[in-house]
Amino acid sequence: MATPRAFGGRKVIFNCRVWVWMAVSALNDAGVIKYTDYKALDEECQRYGTEAESAAAAGVSIRIAAHSG
Fold it and tell me: Per UniProt, which keywords does this protein have (predicted)?
């Protein structure tokens, strides 16, 4: 899939973080949620990804639970 121009276009490879940005943006646009801090969202996605990668390398599975903060 291609990364939409609004999310970086060709400069950004489509990955799970882009998918999350797009999903949150669509929910926000539809009025389902109110969210504007995409930098914080990206940082949180990066943190979860790093934790999951480290856990997988150690042979440990993790569960990620959503929370509001």
Answer: Signal
